[in-house]
Amino acid sequence: MEPWIRWLAAPACLVAAPVHAVQYLTVEQAQQALFPAAMRFAPQPLELSAAQIDAIEDLSGQRVRNAKPQVWRAFDGSRPAGWFFVDQVIGKHEFITYALALDADGAVRGIEVMDYRETYGGEIRNEAWRSQFAGKRQGDALKLGENIRNITGATLSCRNVTNGVKRLLAMHALLLRK
Amino acid sequence: MKPAEIRRCRPLLGTFVEITARGRRPAALERAVRRAFATIEALQALLSVHDPASEISRLNRQGHARACVVSRDAWRVLRAAALLSRQSGGAFDVTLGGGAAGLALLPGRRVRLARPLQVDLGGIAKGYCVDRAVHALVRGGAESGLVNAGGDLRAFGPRAFPLHVRHPDDPRRIFSLGEIRDAALATSASYATGHARCAGQLRDGRSGAPIPPGLSVSVRASSALLADALTKVVAAAGDRAEALLARYGAHAWVYAA
Fewest beta carbons less than 10 Å away: which of A156, A160, B119, B202? Predict the structure, then answer.
């Protein structure tokens, strides 16, 4: 008979697990998920000037760290259906890529987390370490994610994503809305 | 045909809600997952105290002056909360100090507060949202899966999922609780350093005193609502929660620093 309450001698059963990481959606899958009807996504290359960065920061109250945001315009046939953004946010212990979809009027259509990585310690501040995320590390990270699937009691903050969305909405209002 | 599996994650309920679902028809599965997320969004709009337009916020403004009619969902959560409050001798309390007597549930889904009290469903609503999301997935044709709302989770179907919880003092370290199949698990922890905002501040419902840091309670139960609420009971009452756990066939793991 299993006891109703078990007091754990925690150190005996601890597993070292520095990173929890998982990929949910590729760019194409996120586009499909957020615009199921859209046929075509046209990249909208943007390079923010210092003045534009200032304006976005003033309007959103959020720091702009990336002068080259990833933006697509979604089309349903020839009719513009909205905007699609891929953005990254870095929290104290999280590195999150997410997609934001706005409809043609600029209202939020949906948000999907594309990938999520947890880190602890100083690694995230280290540029060289961070750049490893570009492609190569994905396989390793995913394997780790498979091993450590469901972390309960995780202290996952979604505030960084909320702030990222504020920043993208300001960018849309200032630069993309016609 | 090999079953398809999809895994999606959205920022909801002040955390990340992750849904894993497996089924035979990928298109139906996508629809079921979308519907499950939509269910959670709708419940959040009803039950959140952070949204001034929610039913609970309205109850907090008006409920002591007159009885408020609430939705079926809010009614279910309030009824479960009142029952658990009575059964736990007040260790579980959604009225922040009002106790079981603070909340009067009247015929016709009408709710009245005994005095100006603040109802906060933070200790139980997330679990209910997980339960409703699971229901939407099953109805949409998913054969097995898992809904995890930042640690409040429920697995359904024949598949078993491995489970881990964090060390309360050092979130880098993780301990294994084995596997979960067709059951729910919730964890409440008072983390030592700066994580309390996410983990939820634990308080003893009877004294209102914060539970000391370094305590982590996980409860496995038949529903996420029960698991969620029972973590608070165990955190506040310790071994005295045993009778209630036994009554619900629930199990608790407690780690105290």
Answer: A160
